[in-house]
Specification:
single chain; mainly beta; Cathepsin D, subunit A, domain 1; nine-stranded mixed beta sheet; 11 strands; globular
Length: 160
Amino acid sequence: MPPFNLAQSNAGPFAEAADELLVMGWRESVSLPEFGIDKMIAKLDSGAVLSSLHASRIERFRKKGETWIRFLTWSDVFGDQSSYRCEARWLADRTIRSSSGCVEQRPSIETILYIGGFQWPIEVTLCDRSSLECKLLLGRSALAERCLIDCSRQHLYSRP
């Protein structure tokens, strides 16, 4: 079954804008080239506002007069676990309310997302996602005006 094309549906005024959007599955293989991560499985979640990346050993430090964040993350693709030591300029601390209602402060950074031949900058918050299958969650702010999610499909722009 081909991906749903909103432009070919009876979507009215939304059809023209949708013709320029990427239709992606709810799970896609992505790269974070600034961190040297060639492949990571991301969950695309329209229920989340911000994106989040698994991180441990998070520490702040000063570099050229700015606050930076150093952390470890890892990618688990078909059981092949690779860890990455990453550094990025700190953007802000964001207040996040989880789906269970818990509120926490998380540091956020900006990085480049590469998916299916396309790339753009995204903001991600850093948190412990070690118990979750997808170490990267892409929320609405990363996908807005670029993508539609076909929640019945996976890997429309990528292969795991």
